[in-house]
Write a structure and sequence with these properties.
α1 runs antiparallel to α2 and α3 packs across α10. The protein is α/β, with parallel strands linked by helices. The radius of gyration is 18 Å and the shape is globular. It binds adenosine-5'-diphosphate and magnesium ion.
Length: 261
């Protein structure tokens, strides 16, 4: 039996609880997974690199807002800090498909069914979710995540869907969510970002200071199966990567300051 006192600061119980939750969430009738969770629970070897682990979930009620792109880049950046796994919770398996384009992904991408087998090996777990999770799914994700990132382009329709999402989260008492403005227009005349920020402030919805701008380089990255920083011959690729780096550093500061990890 894992003894949390023997590995100081390590949150095995919470992690185990997380594996069970995610397994139940995606696959409620799969007894095999439940057995795998029990085996993990009795395993005495947790090969974690540090003494802590972090769970960042990317969620939204709407598709096409940049969830998978965000999950992929968050995982790529976190992998540069410590062993990271991206859990593809979307039935379309878009993150797995993305990672299969390349022969050398820098981090592991797994399905939620593989989580009981591999999850304990990682210091960071990033979860890409399907669009339209139910209220119960949200409650489970809130329970198990250190931070919920809600990507949204700064358009009226997207912001409307976002308000719906935050209402669900607020109704279940979530204080871990933060909006990430994505696909922000790069033309200097656009007021979309400013308008979106004003709107979110009026609604008291927390939002990252950093934002992800719209660059074609992301499509090339998806085609290559790499993060955007590895796209060759596009001068915006480095700028696009810097956008994600800024946001992830902001997210990490928040998670560490909150004492959640
Ligand atoms: N910042 C961005 N700039 C340009 N295109 C983007 C950006 N983020 C995502 N995309 C593109 O938008 C589409 C949807 O993104 P995706 O991450 O798959 O959304 P979701 O997972 O929410 O459905 C993809 O073609 C992706 O390449
Ligand atoms: Mg997706």
């Amino acid at each position: 039996m894992v003894n949390s006192e023997t590995v100081a600061g390590c949150k095995e119980d919470q992690k185990q609880h997380f594996f069970e939750k995610v397994s139940n969430f995606y696959c409620p009738f799969n007894f095999f997974l439940q057995i795998a969770c029990k085996i993990l629970n009795t395993c005495t070897f947790f090969p974690m690199q540090g003494t802590e682990f972090m769970i960042i979930t990317i969620a939204s009620l709407k598709g096409g807002v940049g969830k998978t792109t965000t999950a992929f880049h968050v995982a790529a950046y976190l992998q540069s800090l410590a062993n990271t796994v991206l859990v593809d919770g979307d039935p379309n398996r878009s993150a797995i498909a993305w990672s299969k384009q390349t022969t050398s992904p820098s981090f592991k991408v797994i399905s939620e069914k593989q989580l009981p087998k591999y999850g304990s090996q990682f210091a960071h777990i990033v979860i890409d979710t399907q669009a339209r999770p139910s209220n119960e799914d949200f409650a489970d994700l809130v329970d198990t995540s250190d931070l919920l990132v809600l990507p949204s382009p700064p358009t009226f329709l997207d912001l409307q869907a976002l308000v719906e999402t935050t209402e669900v989260l607020t109704s279940i008492g979530c204080k871990k969510h933060k909006v990430l403005l994505t696909k922000v227009p790069t033309n200097t005349g656009s007021t979309d970002e400013r308008d979106a920020r004003e709107f979110l402030e009026e609604q008291s919805i927390p939002v990252f200071k950093g934002r992800i701008r719209f660059y074609k380089a992301y499509e090339k990255a998806a085609l290559n199966g790499t993060p955007v920083n590895l796209v060759k011959g596009d001068r915006n690729a480095a700028i696009a990567w810097a956008d994600y780096k800024t946001v992830i550093e902001e997210a990490l500061e928040e998670v560490y300051a909150s004492g959640k990890v």
